[in-house]
Amino acid sequence: MTTTTLSRPASEAQKGFIIGLLAEREVSPALREEILAATTMTSSQATGHITALKGCPRKAPSGTAADLGVWEADGALYAVREFRTPSQELVRYARVARFAALDGTEVSYGDSAAHRVDWIRPEAKGVVYKLAGSGRKLTIPEIVALSIQFDSCFVCGRKLDVLASKERGIGPVCLAKIGGC
Fold it and tell me: How does the average pLDDT of the chain come out, rounded?
């Protein structure tokens, strides 16, 4: 007796994710052709393609990314930071500052009632490229004043614990990253 196992077809979400990955990753012509030539694809095949595509490096974005530091644009503050992926790719990203009063209500940047700051992911993608074109990078003294006011580093978002960093308003690693001594 012969048994046949039927595989379920790839979902629309998987297909869409594959299309997105093909657009944003540096994919070898052979892999691209293999994926695009498939007239039907099972869910497990789609999973394999997604895994292979996620292993490909990201395409270099068009435009120039904002420098590391704190930026002001459209009445908001953004911290531009970077990290290394497991494949050693350097990724630059932005977080937007949300200010809160003592009672927890959200207040605007510059409001004297601001007591706490939280860094959250901006809703729009590509903010680091928009900041380079239309934002204003804060000077080191401006960043230091904000860091002292909120008792946390405005570059990395960490609480300042070391006395010298508290007095300076910024830690030594972040100061070096944004061009200080």
Answer: 84
Give the separation between CA 61 and CA 67, rounded to whole angstroms: 15
The amino acid present at 117, given as its one-letter code, is V
Give residue-wise pLDDT tens across range 108-154.
Answer: 877 778 888 888 887 777 888 888 888 899 998 898 888 888 888 88
With contact defined as beta carbons under 8 Å apart, do 135 and 78 qualify?
A: yes
Q: How far apart are CA 51 and CA 61, in angstroms?
A: 22
Task: Note the pTM of the prediction, 2 decimals.
Answer: 0.61
- Report the candidate in 71, 78, 174, 88 with the shortest Cα–Cα distance to residue 117: 78
Query: Token digits for 103?
Result: 């009672």
Which residue, 36, 46, 38, 61, is CA-closest to 11?
A: 46
